[in-house]
Amino acid sequence: MQAESFTSWRTTGVALFVALVLTTLWCGLVYREPRALHVPSEALPETMGLHSVEQFTDREERFRWTKSTLNLILPNPGGQVHLRMQLSSGFPERFVPVQLATTPVTAFTVGPALRTYHLLLGPEPREPIALGLSTPPFSPASDPRELGLVFADVRLDGGTSPVLVIWLAALASTLGLFFAGRMLVNSLPAALAATLGTCALLLWHASGGWLITPLAPVATVTVMGVALLSLTGLLGQMLFADERLLGQRKPRTSTIRQPARSWHAGEPGYRFSEKVKRPTFSGDAAAQRVFPIVAGVLIVLVMLPIVIWTVTTVNPEFTSDLGIYLSATRDALAGGNPYEPFVIGVSYIYPPASLPVFLPFALLPPPTYDLLWRTLSLVAALAALLALWRTFGQPERAAWIGASFVALWAVSGSLWETLSVGQVNAVVLLGIALFLLGYRYPQWAWVGDLGLALAIVLKLSPALLLAVPLVRGDVGRLVRVAVGAVGLGLLALIWFPAHLWVDFATIAPMLLGGADANPYNYALGAFADRVFPGAGWVGRIVAIALIGAWLVFIVMRRRAEPTLLLALGVLVMTIAPGLVWYHHLIFLAVPTALVILNGTSRAGWLALGSVGLLQLLRPLDVLLGLPPWIVLVAYLLLLWAVVETMAELASSDVGAQFHTHGR
């Protein structure tokens, strides 16, 4: 067995090494040609510090006045760059300092005549080139604008060698595509696909793609997309290849996985043992057949019309959360403070460690980043639902029950609002789902723990789930989550200034305070505030009590199956914070998975009724402006269903799959 493992690792290492070498050689080959670019003033956006286009009186060309600072963002052709700008002071001679990114490089004395000014830049590792020209503004008597320089056009020449970041992006792309493909196929096909994919990307970029967008974000988003698709495919393959989870055969006796010690961070593993009787506690056979059919009908009749109405009527009125993320990323790249001015609902609220996640999209053109973010979020949501099915799926359950659970949330209003407004909830849900999957299957532990680290960096509230490994003494798991979070923080320090952490700390108290009087806030504090204005503190007391009760429960049941404790924790995490909006309710997919895939028929109906009520809330809340009492009922129904399911699992032989174990 050890020899086979060594051979497998040797094959993987050789295949990956060859793929990286071929990528390096191809990268050097395709970037050998020189490249040139001409950008007239009218082709540049106003955001670079330009006024509207004007016509020269003595020539056909057009020009634009700059503001006090002109920020030219130009693609980097590679190699030594020769940059030429047509400028005029429009006034007596003016001294114009020039800086590259934040580093001063030279200064021009610009006269009133339109002339070409030359600048020779050595090989720059960055892409694109960020050039800044600053000059004191003046305002003529006949023009109220603040004017800087007359800018006609810019030309640059370069090439013959790739930018350093292109080398790094190409190697990282091959590495990421290889490991993503390795989830589905063997090493050699994965290496071939990764090499061909990266080489095609490099060829496109060297042949003209560099004029459109930098390579690094395109490579990053490509790897993210392939990794998510591979993960989704692998989870689907695991489900559909397992006859027990699909219910294709349902023997009255089956194998129970008994707890056994594992080498992985002290985590309990599972081994197959003797066959024993396993009762079916999900109701009689007729109920099992009727349940998914009725659930499917309710999905179509209740959810879809509300989802369509919400996406087409309600969501367009909201501020784009994706726009907030990317605007904050660009502001932080320029050294600004994206947290000011701070207003809940329209300001950036995530810690600086989250900025590397948005960085690739912030460097892409508008039509592209929007489509890619929503597509990747949809795939992430599907992967999360499949991971939850794999985590909580029982051998005795028919495949239609698992499929009904996936369909239930795939057409939920909270998911599609997440996609419509460009929220991060789908990615956060995937991180939480992988964390639960890593608890059930030790081989997924690293993936799951890093997934939770990403979820915490993006949302903070999933940090509550760390109470489970903390109480259970799972030090290895806590270390892996910390490594993931710190790693993202270090990545942020590479591109973004350190003062952002201080800036974030200033808004943290306001984030904890939340906002009570908000019609779309479904937190407990909003209930009291909307019925008795100013009484939002009552909801906070209830929320704190709810979190405290869960903490006491996991301390008392610290030897219980951790995925059950975590499912209850996600329910508490969702409904207890001071600020919960409709799209945040997607996290309730976790406790719903526990109930539908394991609970009695009554518990399943309670969970389905809870989700149905949450869907009904949107039109009632928007059209009638009713207090969100219906959400409170939905929360209570789901809490009832989760507690009943956990009690059934604790008292039934079926609970052997969720066997109590400890150190």
From TrEMBL:
Main location: membrane
Compartments (UniProt record): Cell membrane
Tree of life domain: Bacteria
TM region(s), chain numbering: 12-31, 164-185, 192-212, 218-240, 290-311, 342-364, 371-392, 398-416, 423-441, 453-471, 478-502, 537-556, 563-582, 588-608, 620-643
InterPro entries in the record: GT87 (IPR018584)
Keywords: Cell membrane, Membrane, Transferase, Transmembrane, Transmembrane helix
Membrane topology per record: Multi-pass membrane protein
Any single Pfam family the record assigns to this protein: GT87
Protein family: Belongs to the glycosyltransferase 87 family.
Protein name: DUF2029 domain-containing protein
Species of the source: Candidatus Chloroploca mongolica
